[in-house]
Design goal:
Helix content is about 30%, strand content about 10%. By secondary structure, the chain is an alpha/beta fold. The strands form 2 sheets. It has a 4-stranded parallel β-sheet with strand order 2-1-3-4, sandwiched between helices. The chain has a two-stranded parallel ribbon with strand order 5-6. The N and C termini lie far apart (about 55 Å).
Length: about 220
């Protein structure tokens, strides 16, 4: 920009080798904002985040949603929303979705017509679970199985209780994540890991995602 300023004539007549309009605009900007050296620009790259729609009270739906979220960057910040076939989505869930500023709703095990109605109520486009990694509205993420290095990350015991999946995450295909994940010896290992950042697969999904990064307990999942 400074070089363009020197190229602009004082009476704003166009130099022979530059666009008159471009140089005039550059001159105007430099007149209003004096050049003071290099400028710093901060940019933020964030993953696509979704709300997983499960049937109210569905244990299998909850576990499937956790497994899908565990494999995604920022999955720990995605929501699992119960959909009742009669009453639909609760007001509290609607408020959470609004505040979270999500990109889409993902149907897990909710019947088609109820999922469509819930997504419309939440003002989100509806995406099938099988398409979450390919649909342009939800695909901006990366599979955490691509992460290498460091100690293996904890996941829930195979067929373990739901609290372990909620606290540590789980995977659909354990082989695709090896050697970067491991099952715990018992549930206490997951409990001890909750006050230590990035020891579980689910918590590691928030790496480089926090707007204001910190290693406090506030950035880890917890089951009390």
């Amino acid at each position: 920009m400074l070089a363009l300023q020197h190229a602009v004539q004082s009476d704003h007549q166009a130099p022979r080798t530059f666009s008159a309009e471009l140089l005039w605009q550059a001159d105007q900007v430099n007149r209003e904002h004096a050049y003071q050296g290099r400028s710093v620009m901060w940019g933020t790259v964030l993953p696509s985040r979704v709300a997983y729609l499960i049937e109210a009270g569905s244990t299998d739906g909850f576990r499937t949603a956790v497994r899908a979220a565990s494999a995604r960057w920022g999955g720990i910040c995605e929501l699992i929303i119960e959909v009742d076939p009669v009453s639909g989505v609760t007001a509290a869930a609607h408020d959470l979705v609004t505040r979270a500023e999500l990109e889409a709703a993902v149907r897990v095990d909710v019947a088609g017509e109820f999922a469509v109605r819930a997504a419309e109520d939440l003002n989100l486009p509806l995406v099938a679970l099988r398409d979450v990694e390919t649909d342009p509205r939800t695909a901006f993420s990366y599979p955490l199985s691509a992460v290498s290095g460091g100690d293996p990350l904890l996941i829930a015991e195979e067929h373990g209780p739901l609290w372990q999946a909620a606290a540590a995450g789980d995977v659909i295909d354990e082989k695709s994540f090896r050697p970067w994940v491991r099952r715990p010896r018992d549930g206490s290992e997951i409990g001890f890991a909750q006050d230590r950042p990035h020891l579980t697969l689910l918590a590691d999904g928030s790496w480089q995602f926090e707007e204001h990064a910190t290693d406090s307990m506030a950035n880890t999942s917890a089951v009390i």
